[in-house]
Write a structure and sequence with these properties.
Layout: E1 2-7, E2 13-17, H1 22-31, E3 39-42, H2 48-59, E4 65-66, E5 72-74, E6 83-84, H3 86-89, H4 99-106, E7 108-112, H5 125-133, E8 137-141, E9 144-148, E10 157-159, H6 165-176, E11 181-185, H7 191-202, E12 206-208, E13 214-218, E14 226-229, H8 234-246, E15 250-254, H9 262-271, E16 274-277, E17 281-285, E18 296-297, H10 309-317, E19 322-326, H11 335-342, E20 346-350, E21 353-357, E22 362-363, E23 366-368, H12 372-383, E24 385-386, E25 388-392, H13 395-400, H14 404-410, E26 414-419
Parallel strand pairs: 2-15, 3-14, 6-7, 10-11, 18-19, 22-24, 23-25
Antiparallel strand pairs: 1-25, 1-26, 3-5, 4-5, 7-9, 8-9, 11-13, 12-13, 15-17, 16-17, 19-21, 20-21
Bound molecules: uridine-diphosphate-N-acetylglucosamine.
Amino acid sequence: MDKLIIKGGISLKGEIRIAGAKNSALPILAATLLTQETIQICNLPHLFDITTMLELLGCMGVQPIIDEKLNVEVDSSTIKHFSAPYELVKTMRASILVLGPLLTRYGQAEVALPGGCAIGSRPVNLHISALQAMGADIVVEDGYIKASVKGKLNGAHIFMDLVTVTGTENVMMAACLAEGQTVIENAAREPEVVDLANCLVKMGADISGQGTDTIIINGVKDLHGCSYSVMPDRIETGTYLIAAAATRGHIKLKDTRPDILESLLSKLEQVGAEIKLGDNWIELNMHGKRPQAVSLRTAPYPAFPTDMQAQFTALNSVAAGTGSITETVFENRFMHVHEMNRMGALIKVEGNTVIVQGVDALKGAPVMATDLRASASLIIAGLVSENETSVDRIYHIDRGYECIEEKLQLLGAQIRRVPS
Ligand code: UD1
């Protein structure tokens, strides 16, 4: 298992390009199960989670092909098994995304029940109840969700009790081939849901309302092949912007989308960053100033994303003043706080809020990553530390950040990967 060694105290400067979005690439890969024809997916990020999803398709008998431009072509006509085994689901909860496509296209699916994880219990009850409302028989036994339907699923009017991203995606994919109309109310409005919907529409689906809280899907008989380019990763974009603001740096990110980052960009302006935008680039300049602490609250899109909460906590830990950060999406997403306090941060947890009193600089220490975004926050903490920080268990980071140490090196950071 590798770890990252970071020598902090350097302001990030330079330009890098942003990869395709993990959280839209994963459902789009699952959507390839909805047609017999070939889907070509471009701008896939090179990440461990993507490899896991390709492996999952592989163990069902589908053999994705990587072409010379590193695009992936998936032809699911060779599928033989309709199950997602626990070995894969336990490494990647997003494996649940094959449930809707398998059930609606093949009338059967067995997906291991994802367990709890480092950020909370994360049930999938809303995925299950929505598919049941569409006529699926579902039992949960032996640790598996066993789903079947005689004939086709039926369209249904579904109200999601909570905003769930992968839940909305699962139901939307299932509804594409269902009989009649499905309406999803209180649907997730995340840009990744829109990206999946746009890909499904390119495959011949009849979907409207994506990006609002009511999505309407009219089932069609078949979907067909297409070529689709995955949107840029807004969380990767945000992570580098926060890292640059925390280190008082000046960076430009290319191949990204400023229009889906408004909540973050307005917080970064409050922090004191000068921000310039183009259609597909963002430039952030702190002019060497120390960031000001800001307060925020996570919530579903378009509010501040939970996936950037930990990184902002790292920024606040070296900002001038005190900021509070409230987490409303997941129940236990503060594991990084204890590690940051070991680095000299002054952070108090009070229920689902952390109060962060900024200090001049953190002090490097050996720390341990507990989940994907927590790992990113510990790297930012390392970048704003005096002396050396080592971040252990970085397999988490490889799940969701493409070439993170190379990109940070391009921005001038002193960071290297070593075997632990
Ligand atoms: C997705 C993202 C993840 C992000 C999260 C919230 C992917 C692959 N992952 O995860 O990066 O942090 O959205 O933006 O896109 N819930 C239930 N029952 C359900 C489903 C969800 O109670 O059936 C709860 C969850 O426990 C959580 C909240 O709803 O408290 C939101 O979770 P959800 O949006 O489903 O997260 P994911 O789709 O798993």
